[in-house]
Design goal:
Blueprint lengths: L2 E5 L5 H11 L4 H6 L5 H17 L3 E8 L4 E9 L6 H5 L13 H16 L8 E8 L8 H16 L3 E5 L4 H6 L3 E12 L5 E11 L11
Parallel strand pairs: 4-5
Antiparallel strand pairs: 1-2, 2-3, 3-4, 5-7, 6-7
Helix pairs in contact: 1-3
Length: about 220
């Protein structure tokens, strides 16, 4: 099988959204937060989120397409450092696009992880931030996630900047293998069990220092 890597376009949103939905079925925190949300509303959320991302001037989304079928089988998103004007800083925030029935108690871990990231030194004017790495479940174990991770790392290395990512249990091993270091961990109860036993989900806040010219990325 041959695969091509290229920038994602607005016309790709339907494929990107469907891939997001199918790949996150194995993400424990996400599925718990979305358990009361209909499949249709969940997919609509992905469409809206992607439409926003693709319009952001400092954010780029990269896709991997299977050459034979022209099917998008993986994608990633990363935001570059950005200095906002005073007007931009004071502008009202866009309305929430989260589904109405999302479990906000579970979803709140996202905000807590971001606070850990900021307290650990994240600076949006100097650092890159990865906000997604998605691989089609049928195309996993082919090195596509690693290919995207290394591609984005090389962009940050060229800029001489750090990169931050909030890693899930599914992606933690991959990010550590390409040089990310854990600086914090947040947990959330996903389900109350019998006899006081709880099902707990965890996310890890990680950062990667840029490599110098000629230094090889692990893996």
């Amino acid at each position: 099988m041959a695969f091509d890597l290229s920038p994602a376009l607005e016309a790709d949103i339907p494929q990107l959204a469907q891939l997001w939905q199918s790949s996150f079925r194995s993400y424990d925190i996400w599925t718990a937060a979305m358990r009361h949300v209909s499949s249709e509303d969940e997919l609509a959320f992905y469409h809206k989120a992607l439409a926003r991302r693709l319009k952001l001037p400092n954010t780029f989304t990269t896709k991997i397409t299977e050459r034979e079928t022209n099917k998008i089988v993986a994608w990633s998103t990363m935001s570059a450092p950005e200095t906002k004007t005073t007007e931009e800083e004071n502008a009202p925030k866009p309305p929430s696009i989260l589904p109405e029935k999302i479990d906000m108690g579970i979803w709140a871990i996202q905000g807590r992880c971001f606070e850990v990231m900021k307290s650990s030194g994240y600076d949006a004017t100097k650092d890159f931030f990865r906000s997604g790495l998605i691989v089609d479940p049928a195309y996993q174990k082919l090195g596509l996630g690693r290919r995207l991770a290394i591609f984005d790392c090389e962009i940050a290395d060229k800029a001489g900047a750090r990169t931050w990512v909030i890693a899930s249990a599914n992606s933690r091993k991959l990010f550590v293998s390409v040089g990310f270091v854990e600086v914090g961990c947040e947990s959330v109860v996903l389900e109350e069990g019998e006899e006081g036993k709880e099902r707990v989900g965890r996310n890890w806040v990680t950062v990667r220092e840029p490599k110098g010219k000629g230094e090889k990325i692990n893996g």
